Amino acid sequence: MAPDLPFKLNNPSLFHTEALINGNWVPSASKQTFEVQDPGTSNTWATAPDCTPADTDSAVQAAYAAFTTFRTVSPRTRAQCLLKWDSLIRANRDDLATIVTYETGKPLAESQAELDYALGFTWWFAGEAERIQGSVQVPAAPGRRVFTVKQPIGVAVALVPWNFPIAMILRKAGAALAAGCTMIVKPSPETPFSVLALGHLAMEAGFAPGVFSVLPTSLDGTPALSESLCRHPLVKKVTFTGSTRVGKLVAKICADGLKKCTLELGGNCPFLVFADADLEQAATALLALKWRHAGQACITANRVYVQKEVYGAFTEILAEKTRALVVGHGAEKTTTMGPVTTERSLDKAAAQVKDARELGGKVVMGGHSLYGQDKYPGFFFEPTIITGAKSSMLIAREETFAPVMALFQFDTEEECVKEANDTSMGLASYFFTKNVDRTWRLLENLEAGMIGMNTGNSSAAETPFGGIKESGYGKESGKDVAVNEYLITKTGTLTLS
Ligand code: NAD
Questions:
Q1: Ligand 1 within 6 A of 264 CB?
Q2: How far is the CA of 309 from the centre of ligand 1 (A)?
Q3: Which residues pair with 44 in a beta bridge?
Q4: CATH of domain 12-265+471-489
Q5: What is the reported pTM?
Q6: Domain Aldehyde dehydrogenase, which positions (predicted)?
Q7: Which CATH architecture does the domain made up of 269-453 adopt?
Q8: How does pLDDT run across 47-104, given as a tens digit for each residue?
Q9: How remote is the CA of residue 352 from the centroid of ligand 1, in Å?
């Protein structure tokens, strides 16, 4: 029976509370379920199946059986299925966005923007399916020809975070299905329903049973299910997006089976503002980047470095614009900032603010959890700006993942680049300047996989996404590289008679 939801869907058939295995909606083998909370109210609003390692083999066997056929399906047919999936997701955009808002807390407009961004991936990878090509070479040895063919690697497992539950799946599944792989997704415990809804639409789009499966699990059940999926001998590829800590655990498990692995990990991204920058432009870009999903994006600006001459003026612009934010439940039309997604994020933010205060930082605005106040029954944290930030503070060493902005002051470009690179992470870096020479130097000298130059928005389906250092390895999205993560290259050598 469909649960009594706190919102109305135009297409109620999208909402599933069972796992998707082999094209069937099934309870978990244990028959256990777990509760999912609305971060905006802290109330439980639905329960999802708590899958365990007892569900792994049936899901992987079904994905493998589907793979033996799907790998031979023509690229054009795979592209057509992806385009059908794309059009169905597009048609159900607002319903999917509503589910995302109740799972993550983000304002409805942001959930809709996530859908629009995510649809770039289904569209892009449908095109990529037909552009997978091998090569023919005439080698030095006489009378020989050498060919390479690209083939799908096999069953892929996707372990994904809660912060962009639709976009993270479509970025992975788009590439995997374009390549001819089948995929099993283990969503985050916070966001099972949006991923199950994508599964519903994948079936409707005509993907055969087992091509796309979804196994939700609880927070407690996560390590065991993730490990059993990654260790299954028929799984040949693991794609993980999440924290660096868990990414390292997943990499070790994959190393045991020598499995190909993509890791999209933590950020701690620097954002540099030079005195010659257009301050209005820089502030608008920074606030859009930083306050999106209440600071819970891997590519958000974690450390903001502002040149001494404009530090005061820039802080004022940021504070004034931030005061205009309306904090509230994501489903309220007036809300421009929602809660953080989990209660544990509140504790981390509070600890970072306390540490910054103790080390001499000044809290210009905000600084407190609002959770529990009459108007704020959910996991709300005040939009917070801290000046006088220092590299010794927690806020500089760890990702914040909350609406807390730390402003560091710098004197010279050299000093700033040194501080910006003083982190084990290397996902994205941003800078604002009008100086062309400096633009080139920073592009070369900042240690990150993605560099935003006079922009805070550098991610799109057609551009490679991924980090360096402890932000992981492998690329998602972008021409050639992303689909390649799901392919093997086979070399054929022919002697001509
Ligand atoms: P997380 O590492 O806790 O979880 C990520 C995934 O791993 C989830 O599916 C989770 O259920 C699973 N998981 C958790 N513990 C596990 C364990 N012990 N063994 C196996 N699997 C486990 O991360 P999160 O809190 O969901 O997301 C926030 C993190 O993700 C941040 O560090 C953020 O920067 C990062 N992130 C990175 C990108 C990127 O593209 N680089 C994108 C989004 C988020």
A1: yes
A2: 39
A3: 37
A4: 3.40.605.10
A5: 0.97
A6: 25-491
A7: 3-Layer(aba) Sandwich (3.40)
A8: 999 999 999 999 999 999 999 999 999 999 999 999 999 999 999 999 999 999 999 9
A9: 20
